[in-house]
Amino acid sequence: MSFVGGKELRIVGFLCNWCSYGGADTAGVSRFKQPTDLRIIRVPCSGRVDPLFVVKAFISGADGVLVSGCHPRDCHYSDGNFYARRRLEMLKRFLPFVGIDARRFHYTWVSASEGQRWQQTVTDFTKVIHELGPTPLLPQNKTLPKEARA
Amino acid sequence: MNLEKLKEIVRTVLPSVDVVVGYKKGFDALHPVPCFLTSPEEIDALVLNPACVHNLAAYLPSLKNKAAVVVKGCDSRTVVQLAQEGLIKRENVVVIGVPCQGTVSVRKVLSAINHQPVIGASFENDTLVVKTKKGETRLALHDVLSDKCLTCRYPTPVLSDHLAGEQIEPKTAGKEAYQDIRDFDARSLEERRAYWLKEFDRCIRCYACRNACPLCVCRESCIAETRDPHWMSQRATQNEKMMFHMIHAIHLAGRCTECGECERACPMGIPVAKLKKKINMEMKELFGYEPGISMDDKPPMYTFKVEEEKIEEHKIR
Amino acid sequence: MKKARYLKKQKEKEFIAALGAKARVYAPCLEDEAVLFKPAEPDSTICLSRPAVSSPKSVIYPQSETLFSFRFKKDAEDKRRTLVELDDTIEVPDTIIFGARPCDARGIAIIDRAFSKTDTPDPYYLARREKTTIVTLTCPEPSSGCFCTWVGCGPAETSNSDVMMTEVEDGYLMEALTEKGEALLESPILEDGTPYEAQAREAQKAAHERMVKEAGETDTTPVDPETFDSQAFWEKAAERCLGCGACTYLCPTCYCFNITDETVVDKGERIRSWDACMFHHFTLEASGHNPRAAKALRLKNRIGHKFLYYGEKYDGIIACSGCGRCIRGCPVSMEISTIASALKKNSGTVSGEQ
Q: Does domain A11-136 have CATH number 3.10.450.50?
């Protein structure tokens, strides 16, 4: 169910298949309640996440982007998340330079057993995005359905 | 800049390489152009002066066999970076270094002479003398230097097989290289967003910045033009242009040697080099890394540390 | 004989504002250091003292344009069928290009031919063209790289314009060349121009002579076929080219385009956008084969199109207006004039730049 007043914002999540997606699954199986603004895209590893995906999401009108992977040292592919950490840290520092609030982008590490932690992450992040409001970066792509714009 | 010494070096180097990349005269005295020498008769056409702005190292990856290239300090960093990444083989390149005190920004000169056509120009020590139909204008070189030269830390090439001149100490040693970036970051989010949306409004997606960049490697797979996957719309809107420039800068994270060619190549005068400089500043802070200094370095995005000293886990609140 | 009118310099902004009440006015506006054709706003700084960085062709032929939008819907009667709804209404407002140069007007004429002198004239282009009035300014001075007289144009060339503006004492002489131009000049802000006509003629003649001195008279020497087909010639000419699209996009006469369908789920638009033959993948085929992958071949095509192929199709006209924008805007200062000149002389190599 939606968190604030019925209006949903659009948050895109890139979750690594092994840990984070599993963690989200655990949260679901345990029936933990979370806001439904987050739309998940499953990737094999957080190291697969190209900053291109995050930028494309923001440019297309996403209000927030969340990336989650295995904890460093526990990557299913040994070192994918080490690269991701560097890349995403660089991206987080770069976004405000072009006027995108850094708080709209968050990257974290959630393992497959951390259902509770996943619920907390999603709830907190959605709250922050609602506080920040809809993205000021208006998509100029006219074919996006009108309903999608908050 | 010692043209005679350069010609001497080229004369000795030419027999052992297939081509020497240098500068020759262009359509006016402020626009020398890259030239590709293959025979000794062409050596006298070489020029060397503060208007020689092009980063000739950009041509190296596309030259097939052994090549010699004339590089200034900033350009030499490109050679190092290209070698670091395996885009060129060090053995195939003869680096002719030219210590440089700065290159002129044609935009600044044109602005100072009210955009008159230039009939002639000459460099006398610290002065640029520009001749137009309306007469002569003497400009202090320091006033018309490219912005990148004002904070240059490497006036002497970091790598060279031959050096056409005496080593130069950086004048700006100690001065903060990224002050303009810090100042920009101090502005509000809305101001920064409005600034870039305004600048990108006049971008025409000609990709001069991309093609002039020596380290841009995506080539035919550039996301700006691929159809499968279709990353960017063909619509000429600010959002699409912003996306292109952001991705271009991100692709250069930890690799950009700040040669400034992207900004110089832009026909619309958009300050695109700022984006790359910002990321470079973060690379320096996070990983203590500067691109194009040492051949044995590894670009920070290509490697990792299990414990990252400067990266802290972010809390949502 | 259409009566000439006179616009006082101080009344320039007022006149543009008055024009703006009935139409969209594009004028060369100063933005930082660049002069660009933009819609004239009350706070715009109009700059007529030097040519704009890019040509105003984007007013009639925008960089990206939606040809039509479409929507897929299931047939209510037969769910197995999908119907397509198309919306191709063309709506263009009245537009005025104020302060174009003769090279810009010539460029538009060159593009006109390609889009109208065919069995299938382009309705999108023509709709805009019909609604656009072009006010051209005589160029008093050649800019660096200009060579318009060499290709059959000139700083006081009036063909393809609706109104000719010439700088005279304290203002501009405005001469209507077409009916559209006459309608535009019916304004109480303008005065009678007859006292300034002689001055204007002098200015136009002087401007033309200055340009001829700089670039020479029209050169009708044909392109030498042997030089044109020489691989070595083109490899040398293209050696420093970066393969970007700056020259093409700044050019007043270039008009190649790309068509893309951009769909999101069930709705989409067909978009036409500028393309450049200098891009590496311009001739990339679906099979993966690319007949013009090499820079030399792409340069040969671009210059060949302007100085040879276009003329073969359209009465010997050179598809270049000599504006020099490609030379000024090119990051490595490629000179189309020098290359074209070398092609005609049968010298076998690109002659050294002056």
A: no
For residues A141 and B237, give the distance between their C-alpha atoms in angstroms, rounded to a whole number.
9
Q: What is the pLDDT of residues B236-271, one digit of tens each?
A: 888 899 999 999 999 999 999 999 999 999 999 999
Would you list the DSSP string of C308-353?
A: IIHHHHTTT--S-----HHHHH-TT---HHHHHHHHHHT-SSPPPP
Give CA–CA dist A40/A24, Å, rounded: 10
What is the chain A residue with the closest CA to C71?
Answer: A143
At residue C68, the 3 state secondary structure works out as strand
Nearest to B107 by CA among C142, A65, C53, C239: C53
CB atoms inside a 10 Å sphere around CB C77 = 6
Kindly report the length of chain B: 317
B196, B185 Cβ separation under 8 angstroms: no
Instruction: Tell me phi and psi for residue C46, to 5 degrees.
Output: -80, 130
**8 Å CB contact of B33 and C332:** yes
Identify any residues that bridge with C65 across adjacent strands, giving them in sequence order: C272
Is the Cβ of B250 closer than 8 Å to some Cβ of chain A? yes
B190 pLDDT exceeds 80?
Answer: yes
Which residues of chain C does B229 touch, with a Cβ-Cβ cutoff of 8 Å? none
**How buried is B103 (Cβ within 10 angstroms: 0-12 exposed, 13-18 middle, 19+ buried)?**
buried
In order along chain C (354 residues), what is the average pLDDT of each group of 10 residues?
85 93 94 91 92 94 94 90 90 94 95 90 94 95 92 92 94 94 92 92 94 91 92 95 95 95 92 94 92 95 95 92 95 95 74 40
Q: Smallest Cα–Cα separation from C281: which of B219, A118, A76?
A: B219
Distance (Å) of CA A55 to CA A97, B208, B239, C252: 13, 22, 11, 34
3 state DSSP class of A37? coil
Chain C: nearest CA to A1, how far in angstroms? 25
**Is residue C58 within 8 angstroms of chain A, CB to CB?**
no
Mark yes or no for CB contact C249/B115 under 8 Å.
no
The torsion of the CA quartet C328, C330, C333, C336, rounded to 10 degrees, works out to -80
* pLDDT greater than 60 at residue A142: no
- Maximum Cα–Cα distance across chain B: 69
A55 has a pLDDT exceeding 70 = yes
ipTM value:
0.93
* CATH numbers and ranges of domains, chain B: 1-102+152-175 (3.40.50), 176-303 (no CATH)
Interface-testing mutation among B188, B189, B309, with chain A (most A C-beta atoms within 10 A): B189
Share the mean pLDDT of chain A.
88
Residues of A in contact with C72 (CB under 8 A): none
- B 238-257 residues with CB below 8 A of C? none
